[in-house]
Structure formats: structure tokens, C-alpha cells
Amino acid sequence: MSNVHVIDHPLVQHKLTLLRRKEVSTAEFRGLVREVSLLMAYEVLRDLPTELVTIETPLEQMQAPLLLGKKLCFVSILRAGNGILDGMLDLVPSARVGHVGLYRDPATLVPVEYYLKLPDDVSQRLVVVVDPMLATGHSAAAAVSRLKQAGATQIKFVCLLTVPEGLRVFHDNHPDVPVYTASIDRQLDDHGYIRPGLGDAGDRLYGTK
Predict the structure, then answer these.
(1) At 52, is the secondary structure helix, strand, or coil?
(2) Both ends of the chain: CA-CA distance in Å?
């Protein structure tokens, strides 16, 4: 499937397997999501531009690369996206942060927006949207649509898991936005859950079920 990047690094895949196990505690789950998201961030951000600057090492002067401009924004789809957000901020603490609040109507599965807060200069930043699951694809597509309405032009989407059905919906709406994921799982069930999946990521992150 085009414009989808599966991050198959052995450490990512190992930790994803640990996340999937139903006996993992809330604290363990939260820690693993943070670790996986930090590892995934290396791949998602591998094309950040750099510039050479002059520095002094303890021994001599040299030209060395630094990030150019540092114009980066992470946008979390509430609430589960915050689990991935924490790990990525560990890697890039200077990044700006935005939030999109969406919930999925249980009857129609259509996303309903209840919150939006973004940096004023989001149009000038690479925006990395994070949510553990890209399931039906409707919430992810709605969040990216709102970001585009706010002026964002450089957008990437990051999730732990997705399915072919969700990817089709997302890329029907946003063929220009690449998706980075650790796994493309088999399918959605009748309730819109990813199979085999890892359960409800928000509930497992926060111990609410």
C-alpha cells in the first residue's frame, strides 16, 4: 500500500508484542507505549533538515550538523494519543504541541470534535499527528482535515497499529499524508476494533476499564 511505512525494527516489534499481551498492567503498558513511540520517532523524523554550524570541541574547531529551524509540532488525538506524545517529547522536548479532541459515536462510528488547540504558527511547522490506533480511519482523517483547515501543509500520521480498511479511508481523504505504523493488522471487527490488535489503547493506558 502506497504512502505507508511499516517500522519493522526488531526493538519496535519486540515491544509491540509485549504491548499486545492482555496480562500487561496499566503501568507496564504506559511505559511500553512511551518506549515504542520514542523508537518510532527516529524513523518518522529521519528526514528533518540540518545545517552545518561551527563549534569548538575540547580539541579543535569543526563543522557539525544541527537541526535547521527546529520547526516541529506534535499533535495528539485525545486522549490515547498522549501516550505516544510523551515518548516523542522525550526525544524532541523543544517541539510544540497541539491537541485535537475527538470521540467516535458508538452507533455511527463517525468522529465528533470537542476540542482543538494548536500553535499559532502551525502552517510553518512539520506536524506529526499521533494516535495509537488507526482503525476505521474516520477520526484520523477528521483530525488531519482540521489541521489542514488551520493551515498545516506538512503532515505525517503515526500510529502503533492500523488495518487495511482504515488505511483506505484515510488515504481516500488524504493521499498526500504518509502513515507510519508498527503493524498493519488483519481486519476490523463488527465493533470497529482492530484484530488481533491490543484492545482499547486509551483504557489500557489509563486503567479506565
Answers:
(1) strand
(2) 34
Which set of grid coordinates corresponds to residue 4? Answer: 505507508
Annotated active-site positions, please?
Answer: 104, 108, 200, 203
Prediction pTM value: 0.91
The DSSP annotation for 167-195 comes to HHHHHHH-TTS-EEEEEE-SEE-TTS-EE
Crossing angle of helices 26-44 and 10-20, rounded to 10°: 150
**Count of CA atoms in the C-beta half-sphere (13 A) of 159:** 28
Indicate the SS3 state at residue 7: coil
Helices (H), the chain: 10-20, 26-44, 81-91, 138-149, 164-173, 201-206
Phi and psi torsions of 131, nearest 5°: -160, 130
Q: Hey, how many other C-beta atoms are within 10 angstroms of the C-beta on 172? A: 10
What sign does the dihedral 29-207-117-156 (CA atoms) show?
Answer: positive
Output the nine-digit C-alpha cell for 202. Answer: 486509551
pLDDT tens across 106-134, in order?
A: 777 677 889 999 999 999 999 999 999 99
> Which residue segments constitute the domains of the chain, with CATH numbers given?
4-206 (3.40.50.2020)
Grid coordinates in use for 45?
Answer: 523524523
- CB 122 within 8 Å of CB 98: yes
User: DSSP class of residue 123?
Assistant: G
